[in-house]
Amino acid sequence: MRRAAKILTWVALSAFTVAFVYPFIWLLSASFKPRGEVFDNRIIPETFTLENYIRVWHEAPLGLWMANTLLVTVLAAVAVTITSAMVAWGFAYFRFPGRNALFGVVLATMMLPGAVTMIPVFLIWNSLGMVGTLTPLWAQNLFGSAFYIFLLRQFFMGLPREPFEAAKIDGANNWKIFLRIALPLCKPAVVVTLLFEFQAAWTDLMRPLIYLRDSSTFTVPRGLKALLDQFGFGGEWHWEIVMTASVITTIPMIILFFLGQKHFVRGIATTGSKG
Question: ABC transmembrane type-1 domain spans which residues (predicted)?
């Protein structure tokens, strides 16, 4: 019975794996096909070609778009991680009147739809003269994120207070305790925050559509939208170009996940048990 259950478990996991991996395998296969064979649903291309990968670099400034996206994602991930960790540490370590009520207000902001603040935020950036630049895509993260504050606070609350009190007796101030003790102990949660925000910023399309005007400032998602508009003329879509660009821009996220998967899995597994 145990062997049968184990076999069934492996079969079920294999089926789920295939279901989740198949779309990317199909996308990868389509990127090596000529236009007429993109939707033939063959995993192994009947006509294998590298022309799409050569052409896509000539049709669009893909390297520039990826550089813009990398700049935005790094700044956004670092900014939101640092600021969210600072706020989360304040809620977890310091005890002051109204702490729980104030934390509840922070969590309540998660229920506010982004569409509600979209126009006011745009007006603020427009008054600052930042529309058309990359700044609005990452600078908003300087104010933290309610979700990441909650995630990091739960991890901080699971840490024993004794090392912090001992450090304070030895003369360490609150900043040293936070930077040298608390953050290193919460490395899995910090890595999870970085990965989550990196993925969110890398795939974000809404804000680039709102703020970016010139193709030299486009990010990858905005550039892919431009490719769809460019190669959709005459009622005949050039899907092979779009598929190839999608593969090129997806690979960095896959590499990033595999590099950080140990911390990612550990952070997800332990965060829920903290506090």
Answer: 66-260
Characterize 139-165 residue by residue with b for buried, 16 or more Cβ atoms within 10 angstroms of its Cβ, and e for exposed. Answer: bbbeebbbbbbbbbbbbbebbeeeebe
pLDDT number for residue 85: 93
As a whole number of angstroms, the distance between CA 253 and CA 69 comes to: 12
Regarding pTM above 0.85, the answer is no
Interatomic CA distance for residues 163 and 160, integer angstroms: 7
Residues of the chain with pLDDT under 70: 231-237, 263-275
In three state form, how does the secondary structure of the chain look? CHHHHHHHHHHHHHHHHHHHHHHHHHHHHHCCCCHHHCCCCCCCCCCCCCHHHHHHHHHCCHHHHHHHHHHHHHHHHHHHHHHHHHHHHHHHHCCCCCHHHHHHHHHHHHHCCHHHHHHHHHHHHHHCCCCCCCHHHHHHHHHCCHHHHHHHHHHHHCCCCHHHHHHHHCCCCHHHHHHHHHHHHCHHHHHHHHHHHHHHHHHCCHHHHHHCCCHHHCCHHHHHHHHHHHCCHHHCCCHHHHHHHHHHHHHHHHHHHHHHHHHHHHHHHHHCCCC
pLDDT value at residue 79: 94
The letter for the amino acid at 10 is W
pLDDT tens digits, 173-197: 888 888 888 888 888 888 889 888 9
